[in-house]
Amino acid sequence: MLDARTLVLIPARMAATRLPGKPLLDIAGLPMIVHVMRRAQEANIGRVVIATDAPEIAQAVKANGGEAAMTRSDHPSGSDRIFEALEALDPSRQIDTIINVQGDLPTIAPANIRAVVSPFADPAVDIATLAAIISKPDEHTNPNVVKVVGSPLSERRMRALYFTRATAPANEGPRYHHIGLYAYRRKALSRFVALKPSPLELREKLEQLRALEAGMRIDVTVVDSVPLGVDTPHDLETARQVLAGTNR
Description:
Elements: E1 6-12, E2 26-27, E3 30-31, H1 32-43, E4 47-52, H2 55-63, E5 68-70, H3 78-89, E6 97-100, H4 110-115, E7 127-133, E8 147-154, E9 157-164, E10 176-185, H5 186-194, H6 199-204, H7 208-213, E11 218-223, H8 233-242
């Protein structure tokens, strides 16, 4: 049963540099954004809306039975885009949990979308996100793989202390690949988008550091694997292979 207090928002824009028009690229007969939308719908945790500035994305979503909210084109980040959509969709402020799913994760497991909200059982948590243990040796040193350094709370959960593109923490032990899927309490999202970019955010080019530098608490659920993010033509072909025959 859908929770009326939870809203899943998927920001999408056409301005990707490496894969122009990325949300509408065909995967197994459907635009990529529709695959992401369907995974979010299958999570069955709340209303799902695509937040976009592109009429062609909105049209594709609606043609496949989805809902889209139009937003401004000048947002610096997906967080700003989903906040505009939230305010327009819920002026009476009934929604208290917002899940931000990246629009380039067509193979994201619905169970992982559900898992992101579990830290909210603790009222002290402002923002929740996901990570998986790094298993590929090259990912430890790859700056494109964001690592989360955290203090363990249980086998499947940690409190985030830092996010970095560097190899961290040092020495032996697991490292965690951050997965860019977030859940926000409404007050936390409102506060976050009102903050100026922070020094460490600008240095690492990681938006979530703004929240940590402002003293906000981010908890992390550890899941089994990292979903495929489509950023390159090779990623696109991989997604097409994974999702071949799934159009339904």
